[in-house]
Amino acid sequence: MDSKILVVVFGSLLALSLLGEVMAITGSIGNARMIIQATTGEEIEKYVLVKNVNDAPVDINITASGGLADRIEIKEKQFRLNAGEEKQAYFTIKALKPGTTETQINVAFTPQNGSGVGLSSTVIVVAKGEEVQDSEENDNNADNDPSNITGAFAASPVLIGLLSTTVILALFIILLAVYSQKVKKKKEIIKKRETKPKKKSETE
Questions:
Q1: Which of 15, 88, 89, 122 is the most buried (most CB within 10 A)?
Q2: For the chain, what is the radius of gyration of the CA atoms?
Q3: CATH no. of 24-133
Q4: pLDDT tens digit string along 10-27?
């Protein structure tokens, strides 16, 4: 009977210790909500203050979701914070269309042992102005445009030089041949005139 009680007590203490280890992991971030006034096409840099308030190191993983997730560039998506450390996680955001959008910067805290937690910072962007196109998309469209032949020719300047030289040489040969034919005909006419016999006069 005593051995069973000891097993139950030991199991309970082990479960409580494991539960305490999991619950000990806490996530903390600053500026959990921010409102940004922007002009369409303007790139704005902000940051989320990530804090490790735990007594052990944690690994940080940052992602984006929501309306402008594809227009957010996170400078450093993964890093480690030691106990008591904090870091400003910078990101840039850009709205191409006017209006109000809501995006989340998700911060995951993962300890070396145990389960992690996650927090989100809400970014509300109020964009004004006219809709603009992304310069990267324009560059990609220009590269894929079949009418854009500048790149193909620019890639082989030697070929362009050879073609130009060939065309000029061909024109010179044609002009020279035409000129030679004219000179030859002129000489033949002069020669015929010189060799033609003169008519006798009627008085003779």
A1: 89
A2: 42
A3: 2.60.40.10
A4: 455 444 444 444 446 899
